[in-house]
Write a structure and sequence with these properties.
By secondary structure, this protein is mainly α. Helix content is about 75%, strand content about 0%.
Length: about 190
């Protein structure tokens, strides 16, 4: 395991998860906004560690493995906390779609790597857009309180459903890339 700045930032992101959970459950009015800020900082470390790994030429197989694991752990923790706090199918359905897709695509990538075809399921631009919407949605849902009079939680719900839709679409794209697109009729 190479110990470099990008990997340290990734480990820091994983280490932020217990802090994030503890803050989320604090019995203070500022707990949700602070949990949202911690979540946003974790997302920022994700962008920074990838940038630094490329910029400093410190990319590693270990970092490539650990980075998405850290992301998925933070997202799954946040979604589980949100469903536990607010309950109901409105949050549970997109949370299950997002977490389920992450598990399925991670397994697909691992399998594709085993057979030497990992490049077929590299991160797509649709997957990146999904991640941006997902992070914005989770931040808004965690923040909970209105910002500039805007209904943050409701905006978060709408963004989460958009992210869940992109989650499904990107999963279809990855599956098609892995297993080949079905032949066109008449060809």
């Amino acid at each position: 395991m190479p110990l470099n700045l990008p990997n340290i930032l990734t480990w820091l992101r994983i280490g932020m998860i217990p802090l994030f959970i503890a803050v989320f459950y604090l019995p203070y009015v500022w707990a949700f906004p602070l949990a949202a800020i911690i979540f946003a900082l974790a997302g920022l470390t994700d962008a920074v560690d990838g940038y630094l790994a490329r910029r400093l030429n410190q990319q590693s197989r270990f970092g490539a493995f650990l980075d998405p694991v850290a992301d998925k752990l933070m997202v799954a923790a946040a979604l589980v906390l949100l469903v536990a706090e607010h309950g109901g199918i409105v949050l549970a359905l997109p949370a299950i779609i997002i977490i389920g897709r992450e598990i399925a695509i991670s397994a697909l990538r691992e399998w594709m790597a085993e057979i030497g075809e990992r490049r077929k399921v590299a991160v797509s631009s649709l997957g990146k857009l999904k991640t941006i919407l997902q992070m914005a949605a989770i931040f808004a849902l965690l923040y909970y309180q209105p910002i500039l009079g805007l209904p943050t939680f409701e905006i978060g719900i709408a963004l989460l459903y958009a992210a869940a839709l992109l989650t499904l679409l990107s999963m279809v794209g990855y599956l098609r890339a892995a297993f080949g697109a079905p032949p066109e009729v008449g060809h």
